Amino acid sequence: MTPEINQLLDWQPNAELAAIPTVSAESHRYGMRHFAIGVSIITARHGESRAGLTATAVCSVTADPPRLVVFVNKNVVANDVVLNSGALCVNVLAGDQEDVAKAFAGMIDGVHGDARFEHGQWGPLVTGAPALEGTLANFDCRVVKVFDESTHHAFLCEVLATRERNDGEALIYLNGGFRRIPQ
Fold first, then answer.
1. Confidence band of 1 (pLDDT split at 50, 70, 90)
2. How many CB atoms lie within 10 A of CB 170?
3. 0.90 cut: is pTM over it?
């Protein structure tokens, strides 16, 4: 069976714009520092292996069906665990969970690999991917498509379970630092 191609194959980019060079990676990164965005930890489990990373590249795609897209760098361990398991959990962090964000971002000396899960309380929802307790929201997902996007994989996911709370501050990342935003 041939997989369905989910792309407008007859669409063509504007030829005049295609000739203009892109900005440098450094300029792009600097500009993106001003993009305030919620902080999540993406987790996955395959057998006894579990992995996670702090991420800001998460976006809602549609509500019906309930889908998210999650971008994960191909060079991190979590990428392979997601690929092998076909599942992931998006844990949307509350303001008081900055220490967990730092642990999964590699910002705490000596904390890497499975030791990251010693920060916070973890348990499964539906897929077996670790879900952090006390977050503003958890989205437990199955991966339905994977797109190869340069240095990252874009995982298109369907949400199988959610958990949320309606109090607490949100944790965002802005201009190179974590910030808290009251609800």
1. low
2. 16
3. yes
